[in-house]
Structure formats: structure tokens, C-alpha cells
Amino acid sequence: MMENPEEDLLQLHNDEEIIEVIDLSDAEPTAEDLAEELEDVDVADAGNEDDEDDDDDDDEEMESQQDDSELTFSKHTGSVFCVSLDPVSNTLAVTGGEDDRAFVWSVCDGELLFECTGHKDSVTCVSFSWDSRLVASGDMSGLIKVWNVENKQEIWSFEVGDLEWLEWHSCAPVLLAGSADGNVWMWKIPSGECKTFPGPSCQSTSGKILPDGKRVIVGYEDGSLRLWDLKQGNALCVIKGPDGHQGPLTALACNKEGTLVLTGSVDGQAKLINTSTGKVLCSFSSENTEAKDSMQEQESNSVESVGFCNVLPLVAVAYLDGTLAIYDMNSQSLRHRCKHEVGLVHLQWEEASAVVSTCNLAGVVTLWDARSGMLMSEYRGHTAEILDFVLN
User: Fold this and answer.
1) pLDDT (tens digit, 9 = 90+) per residue, 10-47?
2) Whether the Cβ atoms of residue 172 and residue 209 lie closer than 8 Å to each other
3) So what's the pLDDT on residue 51?
4) 64-118 confidence digits (pLDDT tens)
5) Which helix (H) or strand (E) holds 136?
6) How far apart are alpha carbons 228 and 48 in whole angstroms?
7) Given this model, what pLDDT does residue 170 score?
8) Which of 155, 200, 239, 308 is surrounded by the fewest CB atoms within 10 Å?
9) Integer CA distances (angstroms), 109 to 19, 71, 105, in order
10) Is it the case that residue 229 has pLDDT exceeding 70?
């Protein structure tokens, strides 16, 4: 069972351009909901094709009407790409979308606090600073803006090449970003003092600041990884070639101690890396999740998201084929295979339990008990794929 039943889930999608807040403690299991709704449905005559079509339409309409959310935010007019919750109070959200707009709003009542104006392209990166005083928004063209949450004013902006990722330091007003030219930028906010970490002349696809606040692990399009010293500006280790991935990096996560990093790539591999030595401890492969009919199908099974469990020696890997794989770090073996009917987009572990949540291309959020591999709950309301979500 869930150890934190009061946690709320914030999810996004790109059809009705809305964001929904779901109370995980109140939503009923989907199976029970459908059972109650189906009690009064007449069974069509097997020989009447028109009645069968009508029943199919009714089923589709019934499913589309199911909405487990507590609140809907609908000011975006295009696909919603990214979301972040303020880490101090968990009462504010910032969302960015295809409409070149980012909004800071209350998850309690949906009230708009302010809009992050002036972007020239789709806003693909948004994030609150560690103390929730600042919020950063970045668009695809590389324009990054930082806002003071209290007075709702822009305090800093900068333009880089095409933006790939954006992340705040865990305990200082320092912002990092990765761009399509391979550079990683680091600024002090609001002074704008800058340092760059040059990459291997290809996209810096993902980055993660380690918990010690002194290092950042960066993944690149060529499959390589670099562990950078933020103060000195030098690469502590480079992982590439046979030890690295054979395709662009798609996901990065580190454990709470910062001793291990888990990486994912379009090559279908997830690698566990020791951050002190730079040694690859093991690889978790899509080959281990389910037999593939062809090499082409295997290669298309990209890793979309990865994460560490905080309470058990487990990691989760979400694959494009809809598999959520739970691996045991001690034995380096597959523990559970949790199947979805469609591809996965993102996963996140609860902070203090062995429950992992996923969002998928069918617009559904699912909760899984990693100890048993059993599905705990499903949450619906969206009519298209969910592109991002976050747990408070």
C-alpha cells in the first residue's frame, strides 16, 4: 500500500491543452468505476451490427468522460510540454507549452499568479529554484528567463543555442542549461556570471546536478557521458566507446547519496555508473524485458525515463514499448515487468515508499507497487498523451 496517501499528482497532456491535479487518496480504482457504470448497460444483440457500433461509441464516450482530477488548468492554447512544482510549499506550479507561454499558478484553486512573457518559441523547460523564490523558463530557440516569484518580475535573461535541458542548483541561485551545440552553461543569478563546459560537438541531451552540488553528469547525442567539476570546470571522467551508450542519451537519475547514476538511451540500454570512479557497474537491457521479433524492433525500444527507489535497492526503467522494468541493484536482475498497452513517457518514485508512477501515450497515469509488481491504481482524464508529470 502507499505510504504517503495524501500526495497529489500533477499531469499534463497535449490535446485539450489542460493540466490536471489528481488527489491520489480520493480517486477510486478504475476497474470499480467501470463496473458500476456498466451495471445498467444493455447487452446488444449479437446479430445487430448497428447496436454493436452504438455500444462501442458509448464505451468510448464513457471512457473519455472519466476524469479523476481535482482541478483543471486550461489557459494554455497548445500542447503542454513541461511542469514543475515549487519545492518549499508545493502550492505553486509552473507550466510551459507549444503556445510560447509559461504560467505560474496555484494548484489549490487554479488561480494564475503571473505569466512568463516574452518567449519566441515553444516553452520546453520550466523549473523553480531550490528555495521557490525564483522560476526559470526556457524555450526551444534558447531564450531563458528568470523571474522573481514574489514580485512577479523578470530579473534576468540570456539566449543560447537551441535549448535541450535546464536545471537549478540544489542549494544556490545557480542555473545550468544544455544546448544543441554541446555546450553546458552555468550562471549565477541574477548577476549573470557565466561558465561554460564544452561538449563533443553534438547535442547535450540531458544533465543532472549531483546531490553534493559540486558535480554535474551530462549526456550527449553521441552516447558519451561526462562528469564535470562545477568549480574547476574540468571533466572528472568521460564514459564513451564500448563503455558508453551506442545512441543519444535520453534520461539521467542519481541516487540520494549521489554515489550512483543511472542513464538511459535510445539504444535500449540503462547503465548504472559509480560517480567516484566513473566505472560502469552494470547494464540493464531491453533484451531482458521481453523477447523481440527482430533486431529493428529491439533497437526501437528506447529508454524514456529512469529512477532510483529511496527505500529499497531498486531502480525503474521505462521503455518506449510500454514496459516498466523494476531491477534489483544487488543482484542486477529483473525483478518485475509491468506492462502498459502503449509507450511510456516518464516515471517517478514516491519520496519515501516503493511506489513508482508512470505516465503514458494513452493519457493515463498508473501507480505500481515495486515490491510485488502489482498495479495499484490508474488515473484518467486526458484524451491524448501525457508529456510530463510530477509528484509533490
Assistant:
1) 444 444 456 677 766 554 444 445 444 434 434 334 34
2) no
3) 52
4) 578 999 999 999 999 999 999 999 999 999 999 999 999 999 999 999 999 999 9
5) strand 134-139
6) 67
7) 92
8) 155
9) 13, 7, 9
10) yes
Residue 56: which H helix or E strand, with range? helix 49-65
Q: Give the phi and the psi of residue 341 in degrees, each rounded to 5.
A: -75, -20
Q: Which residue has the higher pLDDT, 184 or 43?
A: 184
Distance between CA atoms of 364 and 80, rounded to whole angstroms? 15
For residue 362, give the C-alpha cell: 494513452
Report the alpha-carbon distance of residue 368 to residue 370 in Å, rounded.
Answer: 6
- Do the Cβ atoms of 370 and 350 come closer than 8 Å? no
Grid coordinates 526556457 are at which residue? Answer: 138
Torsion of CA 369, 2, 19, 132, to 10 degrees: -120
- Cα 319 to Cα 89: distance, rounded to the nearest angstrom: 32
Closest by CA position to 206, among listed 230, 178, 233: 178
Question: Using an 8 Å Cβ cutoff, are 366 and 375 in contact?
Answer: yes
Distance (Å, whole) CA 76 – CA 349: 28
Query: Residue 63 has what pLDDT?
Result: 54
User: Using CA atoms, how far apart are residues 392 and 382, in angstroms rounded to an integer?
Assistant: 20
| Three-class DSSP category at 116 | strand
Give how far the C-alpha of residue 59 lies from the chain's centroid of Cα atoms, to the nearest Å.
Answer: 30
CB 182: neighbour CB atoms within 10 A? Answer: 21
Q: What is the overall mean pLDDT for the chain?
A: 87
Instruction: Please list, in sequence order, all residues whose beta carbon lies within 8 angstroms of the beta carbon of residue 167, skipping any fewer than 6 positions away.
Output: 127, 175, 176, 177, 207, 208, 209
- pTM for this structure? 0.82
Peptide bond into 5 cis (omega under 30): no
Which residues make Cβ contacts (< 8 Å) with residue 271, sequence separation at least 6?
A: 245, 262, 263, 280, 282, 283, 284
Helix, strand, or coil here: 63? helix
Nearest C-alpha neighbor of 366 from the set 335, 322, 313, 329: 322
The residues, any chain, with a CB within 8 Å of residue 220's CB and separated by 6 or more, are 182, 199, 200, 202, 203, 204, 205, 226, 248, 249
d(CA 115, CA 243): 44
The runs of H, that is alpha helices, within 187-300 are: 295-299
Looking at this protein, which amino acid is placed at residue 291? Answer: A
Strand ranges across the sheet with 269-274:
249-254, 260-265, 269-274, 280-285
**Grid cell locating 272:** 548504472
